[in-house]
Amino acid sequence: MRCARCIQISLLALVACSSSSLPEGATAFSGTGCYQCCFETSTFVADPPTNSEFWWVESPPRAFDEAFEKMRRTYPTNDRSYSASVRVQGSVGPPGQYGHMGGATRLLEIREFSEMRPHPGGCPIIIPPELLEPLPSVEGGPQ
Predict the structure, then answer these.
(1) What is the largest CA-CA distance in the chain?
(2) Is the residue at 29 inside a domain?
(3) pLDDT tens digits, residue range 22-80?
(4) What DSSP string describes 20-65?
């Protein structure tokens, strides 16, 4: 009986240590969006209404990579990158500069995925609000 109690305590400690705690400054994320990969990109854009920025995906789970490569071979394109609609669970890191040339605003750590299908036409392009402000007119230029 005493040994069984030790095993129970050990298992509880193991579960507590291995529970999926979030990295410092990260928030949990579960949702759908567009994942784009390959030539200098590994990004995710959440579906509306939460798609105000794009996130860099670093080191997705092996099963995610394998499913993505299988889909890419099944539905080939001539593009240098490939897009997929996905449903993922993971965590989103704090604001910063991530990925290729620091172009992504956050880091997405994918822990699980439950859906993946081709996304024709690529992921939506996110334009930061500050770039949408009207440009100042130049004297003598077109009005």
Answers:
(1) 91
(2) yes
(3) 668 889 999 999 998 877 788 898 887 666 788 999 888 999 989 988 988 888 776 77
(4) -PPPTT-EEEEEEEEEEEETTEEEEEEPTTS-SSEEEE-S--HHHH
Q: Does the pLDDT at position 87 exceed 90?
A: yes
Does residue 57 belong to any structural domain of this protein? yes
Cα 16 from Cα 11, distance rounded (Å): 9
Chain centroid to CA 16:
26
Torsion angles phi and psi, residue 50, rounded to 5? -95, 20
How crowded is the C-beta side of 36, counted as CA atoms within 13 Å? 23
> How many domains does the chain fold into?
1
CATH number at residue 26: 2.40.50
The structure's pTM equals 0.68
Burial class (CB in 10 A: 0-12, 13-18, 19+), 110: buried
